[in-house]
Amino acid sequence: MSTGQQHHSESNNVSFETINAHVSNIDLAEVTAPTAATQTAAERAQRLMTAYTAARPILVAVSAIPLIPAAWRAIVTTLVAALDGVTNTFKAGKDLAVNTMEPKLPA
Predict the structure, then answer these.
(1) Is there a contact between 76 and 63 (Cβ–Cβ < 8 Å)?
(2) HSE value, Cβ hemisphere, 13 Å, CA-based, for 18
(3) What are phi and psi of 62, to 5 degrees?
(4) Distance CA 66, CA 64 (A)
(5) In sequence order, what DSSP letters do the residues of 7-22 get, joined into one string?
(6) pLDDT, tens digit, 9 for 90 and up, residues 36-90
(7) How far is it, in rounded angstroms, from Cα 103 to Cα 39?
(8) pLDDT class for 5, splitting at 50, 70, 90?
């Protein structure tokens, strides 16, 4: 597996200016707010997606720095790709919904 720049699409602009502009638009209070003990799985998943969306440009930039060992860059690149797949299919907790219907038991 190569960890070079070719793994990053053209939409992954890793300049300081684009990363800083992205981070400046993030609601840090939402990302860094303490979690409630009563959070549902869907709420925790949504928080993870919010935090990942905020951190993604930084992770992409880290994965492109040649001074970082290739194995580390490969891991970060794999993490970004895996989380991209999750965020692309996540539907506001749809997959985390609990079945509240009672089973039909034989009489």
Answers:
(1) yes
(2) 10
(3) -60, -40
(4) 6
(5) GS-TT----HHHHHHH
(6) 777 888 888 888 888 899 999 999 999 999 999 999 999 999 999 999 998 888 7
(7) 27
(8) very low
The reply to whether the predicted model has a pTM over 0.85 is no
Instruction: Say how far apart CA 56 and CA 58 lie, in whole Å.
Output: 5
For 58-70, the pLDDT digits (tens) are 999 999 999 999 9
CB atoms within 10 A of CB 57: 20
Contacting residues for 31 by C-beta, under 8 A, at least 6 apart: 50, 51, 54
Two tokens at 49? Answer: 């997606």
| Cα–Cα separations (whole angstroms), residue 70 to 5, 16, 53, 80, 97 | 12, 22, 24, 15, 39
CA–CA dist 107, 101 (Å, integer): 18
